[in-house]
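pls design
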């Protein structure tokens, strides 16, 4: 069912974007319950439908983004030369804290989910292991990112050995231009 839903959405989105391809670009939805199916849909969405990014969540079916079971998806993104768009979801963070209060869940879960995803991509060594992989951190605000990145670097420096997948500071891929963060024009931060 997840595969069929993602295929249907990606087909619809490609048709929608065809109305103005100079302005509208597709971000492919992936059936992340199966990495094989996700890789196949990524290839179809980019190659056949013109998607320009692959959407994932801050965690995938209970796994952090540095879990080796996800590496085939990262290899596919590198091969297809498209970034991953990390969007809220997957961690379940805050949902059980604010039952029936969607505004509070939305306010907390979006930045926290993306923050957890960014942590495992940057400090878990994913971007070091996949040197051509690019990432966009989406719909989580941007004001938190500079201080958070500084905090990750400080932990890399002061707690050697606790980020064993890294040989260089977590901020390195950001400095290389491989990580971007979206923001809204009205954000004060």
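designed seq:
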């Amino acid at each position: 069912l997840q595969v069929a839903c993602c295929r249907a959405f990606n087909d619809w989105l490609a048709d929608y974007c065809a109305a103005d391809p100079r302005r509208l670009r597709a971000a492919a939805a992936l059936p992340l319950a199966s990495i094989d199916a996700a890789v196949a849909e990524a290839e179809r969405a980019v190659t056949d439908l013109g998607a320009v990014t692959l959407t994932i969540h801050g965690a995938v079916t209970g796994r952090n983004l540095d879990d080796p079971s996800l590496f085939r998806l990262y290899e596919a993104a590198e091969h297809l030369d498209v970034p991953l768009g990390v969007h809220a979801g997957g961690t379940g963070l805050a949902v059980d804290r604010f039952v029936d209060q969607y505004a509070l869940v939305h306010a907390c879960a979006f930045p926290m989910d993306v923050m957890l995803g960014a942590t495992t991509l940057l400090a878990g060594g994913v971007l070091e292991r996949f040197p051509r992989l690019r990432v966009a951190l989406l719909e989580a605000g941007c004001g938190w990112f500079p201080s958070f990145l500084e905090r990750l670097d400080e932990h890399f420096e002061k707690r050697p050995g606790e980020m064993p997948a890294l040989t260089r500071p977590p901020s390195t891929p950001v400095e290389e231009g491989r990580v971007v963060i979206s923001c809204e024009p009205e954000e004060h931060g």
